[in-house]
Design goal:
The protein is an alpha+beta fold and 431 residues long. Helices cover 12% and strands 29% of the residues. It contains seven helices and 17 strands. The strands form five sheets. Strands 7, 8, 9, 10, 11, 12, 13, 14 and 15 form a nine-stranded antiparallel β-sheet that branches. A two-stranded antiparallel ribbon has the order 1-2. A two-stranded antiparallel sheet has the order 3-4. It is elongated and about 105 Å long.
Length: 431
Amino acid sequence: DVNDGPLAPPPPGVGAITAALWYGDSLQGNLTSVQEALLGCGNHYGTQCDLHGIDLLNAEASALFQAFPWIEGTERDPHWNTTNAAIAQPGTGGFTGGALCTRFEVGQLLVLPGCLGPGMSGYDVAVDGGIVRSEDGSNAPLVHPFTGQPFRSETAALSWNLLMLAAALGCEPDTSDLSKCDPLRAFATGRCSFAQPQHCKLVDGFASLTRVTRSHRRAGGNGVYGRRQFVWGGVGSAALSYQKRNVLGFSSDFAEDLTGTSWGFEFTWQEGLNAVNNNASDGLSGVDTFNLTISAERPTFFRALNAHRTFFLSSQLFVSHIGGYERGMTADGPWTFLLLVNASTGYFQDRLNLSANVVWDFRSHSGALLPELSWRFSDAVSATFGVGVFTGGWTRRLRGINDFSANDDNLLTEFTYVENGLSPVRDLDHV
């Protein structure tokens, strides 16, 4: 194409045939500088792709692996066959897969230059490349070698070349290792081959280096699938800060004679707190929290259970409201309710004391049961026996627009999971 190159000089000391191959099949001889940048090399990085190699640290994974059989749209089908012309192959025009080279900037979804093909909005042959010149001197479209399906772009054909190279590397004749290709069975099924390269060790290894973003457009997805990126593409910068919190609160206590109960009310308001919000670009949103605690307590006789001592009954209801709550937040909300109930009594002139606490968080369906028995031998010696039983579970949330963790297995899905309420301590049952 018009802007391909410039060619790098062949390594010193090579023969004429090797030099001809170098010029004919080199990266720089077939790609524009913008396309080279998708490989992490070229003029934009001050390197020459043919001499210095590509740089995966700066490469665009969605462009590099768009023709691979484990890409989005194939659903990682172990039986996918690259010779099957009845279905659209990855990288071809009829294939529907993940977002390709997308970025969400200035409020819109953009595509990196160099990734586009003919018929796509914004396509420019001088930037994105086009057709190649065949050996007979005629211009012909780039097509899938096994099915004849046209590739959607020049970078898709480049991805196919990488796939075939990754499948071919490490080939061994008569090998019994199904993760290596056998040149005598180049199109075998159920093992590494050109027909099913997804079984090849290097091809599968490339997949382990990548993750898929959320399908949301603000995460660079296309609404159906996310954009495949290298794991280090999900690593970001974090700032740890202890922020000032202004708290305004009121409290009141009073006794109610008719029921013989004592009541307490506490209310607090905190303004402008940071809350984790997976729908926000930086993962945070400002919220106001309103907290109300209602407590009631009463000594009550249950003669059948204890003829000489009352049971002291107390309860507390914690009500919280998050002002500005959004669906992408990992915390429960906007309303949460937590109930704590306690009952205690004494026997044998209070030498034996029994108490039990029950805690339940209604939103997260988590709670605790905490019974306790205490025996006082003397004023100086006593023994206590107690049990703590906790329950809880994981709550599903949408993944972040910009994921921070590069090693989280949940990055292969649209969701992440959090533990709210008492769930983080549910494995701490004890005696």
